[in-house]
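Hi support team,

I've been running sequence recovery on a batch of backbones for a student project. Most finish fine, but this one hangs at about 90% for roughly twenty minutes before it completes. I'm not sure whether the input is malformed or the queue is just slow. I've pasted the structure tokens below so you can try to reproduce it. Let me know if you need the job ID as well.

Thanks,
M.K.
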């Protein structure tokens, strides 16, 4: 886990100084995170799909809006800006859930880099 954090921080630093040093956004994005490999399997699976899935209707969704489903890249894409904002701001998953569910700093960084790189599938 510690190693993964270092990698994510390098990604973010490289983006911040992109254009000034040897590392540019395009270098970072050459190995960009992707939805199918990096975002969907752990982050979305563990922390969003409990509510935001087409497999659930009515009260099972626990209030998640019916049109916001993150099952696949295709269902996420129409709302991808809201998806990324909700995670990077810490707005979602909703606070005060019991048991609590929140994203880690690593997950928020990962989504920031994914956005910077244009949301690769
Ligand atoms: C426990 C159920 C639950 C989980 C888990 C959950 N949400 Fe939600 N989500 C909601 C509810 C309820 C709303 C509507 C109320 C609100 O906006 O807070 C909502 C609204 C949203 C919205 C629209 C409002 C906004 O703030 O932009 C987005 C986007 C969103 N969720 C993304 C996510 C993402 C991404 C995850 C996973 C990291 C997630 N949600 C996890 C229940 C959930």
């Amino acid at each position: 886990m510690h190693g993964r954090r270092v990698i994510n921080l390098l990604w973010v630093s490289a983006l911040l100084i992109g254009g000034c040093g040897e590392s540019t956004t395009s270098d970072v994005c050459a190995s960009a995170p992707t939805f199918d490999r990096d975002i969907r399997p752990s982050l979305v699976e563990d922390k969003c799909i409990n509510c935001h899935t087409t497999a659930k209707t009515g009260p099972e969704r626990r209030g998640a809006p019916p049109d916001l489903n993150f099952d696949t890249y295709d269902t996420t894409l129409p709302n991808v800006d809201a998806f990324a904002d909700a995670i990077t701001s810490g707005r979602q998953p909703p606070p005060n859930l019991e048991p609590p569910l929140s994203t880690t700093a690593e997950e928020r960084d990962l989504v920031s880099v994914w956005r910077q790189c244009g949301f690769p599938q």
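--
Follow-up from support: It reproduced on our side and the slowdown came from queue contention, not your input. Residues 33 and 114 are 6 Å apart (CA to CA). No action needed from you.
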